[in-house]
Amino acid sequence: MSVPRLLLLTRTPPGSGSVGEIILRDLSLQYPRDSLSCFVIESPNFGQAAPELAWLPIVYASRQSRSGCGIPAPYVREIGNFLKHQYSRKINGRKLVREVVAFGRAQGVEIVWANLNHPAVIYIAERVAAELGADLVTMVWDAPERFHLPRHMDGWSAHLMLGDFASALRTSKRCAVISEEMQDEYHTQFGVDTVILRHGLSQEIRQPPATSLVTEDQLILGFAGSLHAEREWQALLEALGSTKWRIAGRTIRIRWMSSKLSLATDTPVNVEFLGWRPVQEVVDLLSQVDVLYLPYPSDPAYSRRLRLSFPTRLTTYLATGRPIFYQGPANLAPARFLREYPAGVCCHSLDAEDIIAALTRFTKNDGSYEQMTATTQLAIDREFTLQVFRQRFAHFLGVNESDLIPAPQYGKQVGRAEELG
């Protein structure tokens, strides 16, 4: 029996330029070639499909459908923004629907797979599926609230976008989500069948679990990715400064990999700044440290979005076989994950004494360090293997796992360290 003909509807193509593109690439490589097509709402200059997908029928939205109304907001910013977003939502959105439906009919599409990573995709997903008479399955990596600020979206436009989002999920046969919190909330709120779909790790990238600290006189912390938790990072610096960067008789050192380093201190620090690195190199370098630093902001303005998100860097951290030092609120996904899989230590405070006490736990010679590193492997085996990735993708689409195909480049990790969210 042949699999349903599938249309991937997305802002960016399955490619190699970002974490999101890589995940789409590795999913697309598993679906039978004659049954998958793709419609991208951004221009081809924004992102290119991966060379491995040269066979994929792919169409980019026309310039007319992508363009905005050109209305600035010079005098009454709220009204100007409202007009701009509603023109884009209604006029350009309807043009996009017509383009996607024409392409989908030519491809004989039976399932629309909508990656809800852009307001335009959120608006058109349900409408496209309805006009094609196709089932709708949706994918959510970030709560739609994250689109408000970067797009200067006025309150009413944001309200309408969230309404489109709710309608799309209620219509979906299934929704792939990134975290347990998102799974619980979306199933309860929208009644949609949800499946957690996080990127699988190639066996080649995994490092063996550490059995002890690297040296007898240091505790080395490692960090990779973008820093979104300035308060937490500053609290860590102040806590370490208060002990002159020594804990339990060990000198503290931090290895930092990102495109930039934020430092504001009037005391000596011990930070090794390595700039951005490819993900494979990040894993190799982090496997040479003792503890991996995972800060998460406690800013109430972002509490809902953060609560539903899941940091991609946590997957990469686990691959190193080193324990995690999580510094952030107790009600967010990383804290919940580390409660289920105690592969590290959590600190939910900005107080220096609490931070030092949490870090000291990694120096205990009581077997707890080995237990934490062993748990990193358990977490990967249960949540992040390529097999789990494949099984959950099949469930998401409503096909048998045996209907999917092997993918030669499946699970390959590329990209920049700062893309690790």
Largest sheet: 7 strands, parallel
Count of individual domains: 2
> Which whole number gives the mean pLDDT?
87
Provide the CATH superfamily of the largest domain.
Glycogen Phosphorylase B
Instruction: Give the strand order, joined by hyphens, for the main sheet.
Output: 3-2-1-4-5-6-7
The backbone outline, from C-alpha atoms, is elongated
What report would you give on this structure?
This protein is an alpha/beta fold and 421 residues long. The chain has two domains: 6-200 and 385-419, Glycogen Phosphorylase B (Rossmann fold), CATH 3.40.50; 204-379, Rossmann fold. It is built from 14 helices and 14 strands. It has helices at residues 19-28, 63-66, 77-107, 119-132, 155-171, 180-190, 230-242, 279-286, 303-308, 312-319, 333-340, 352-360, 368-383, 386-397, and strands spanning 6-10, 36-40, 58-60, 111-115, 135-139, 174-177, 193-196, 218-224, 246-247, 250-257, 271-273, 291-295, 324-327, 344-347. A seven-stranded parallel β-sheet has the order 3-2-1-4-5-6-7, sandwiched between helices. Strands 8, 9, 10, 11, 12, 13 and 14 form a seven-stranded mixed β-sheet that branches. Helix 6 (180-190) links the parallel strand 6 and strand 7 (193-196).
